[in-house]
């Protein structure tokens, strides 16, 4: 199971740190990702990280502003979001993939958290 938290209301230019707590002994084996879904839009990839944490991947829209990280000893994944913009407003989901490779395709992820809402005011 995955439990996302840390969302909230922030002004443009502000920061938030999202957390995702995972249960299960095999968390360290899974590539992880953050996705988001804005009202009326499809869920989209935001960031991904390999099981070891060595490699990270980002959507072009968040590159340079967001940072994904993980602490396998605590079964946690984080998304540090800086320089937030109104277009970042969405429900953010963490997800885990039973596989080796990180990908940016929603359907390739097997486990999902419940989502945490981020609202960026202009």
Brief characterization of the structure:
This protein is mostly beta strands. It is 0% helix and 47% strand.
Descriptive labels:
single chain, 122 residues, mainly beta, 7-stranded mixed sheet, 4-stranded antiparallel sheet, 11 strands, 0% helix, 47% strand
Binned, the helix content reads under 10%
The helix/strand series, from N terminus to C terminus, equals EEEEEEEEEEE
Alpha carbon gyration radius: 13 Å
Q: What summary fits the major beta sheet?
A: 7 strands, mixed
Shape: globular
What average pLDDT do the residues reach?
Answer: 95
Range of strand content:
over 45%
DSSP helical segment count: 0
Number of strands: 11
Class based on secondary structure composition and strand pairing: mainly beta
Low-confidence stretches are none
SSE inventory with pairings:
Layout: E1 2-5, E2 8-11, E3 16-22, E4 32-37, E5 44-49, E6 56-58, E7 66-71, E8 76-81, E9 90-96, E10 111-112, E11 116-121
Parallel strand pairs: 2-11
Antiparallel strand pairs: 1-3, 3-8, 4-5, 4-9, 5-6, 7-8, 9-10, 9-11
């Amino acid at each position: 199971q995955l439990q996302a938290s840390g969302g909230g209301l922030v002004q443009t230019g502000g920061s938030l740190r999202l957390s995702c707590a995972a249960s299960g002994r095999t968390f360290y084996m899974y590539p992880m990702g953050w996705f988001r879904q804005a009202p009326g839009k499809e869920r989209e990839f935001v960031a991904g990280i390999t099981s070891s944490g060595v490699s990270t991947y980002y959507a072009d829209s968040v590159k340079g502003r967001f940072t994904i990280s993980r602490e396998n000893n605590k079964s946690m994944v984080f998304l540090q979001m800086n320089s937030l913009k109104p277009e970042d407003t969405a429900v953010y989901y963490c997800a885990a993939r039973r596989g080796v490779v990180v990908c940016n395709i929603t359907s390739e992820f097997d486990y999902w958290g419940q989502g945490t809402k981020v609202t960026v005011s202009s």
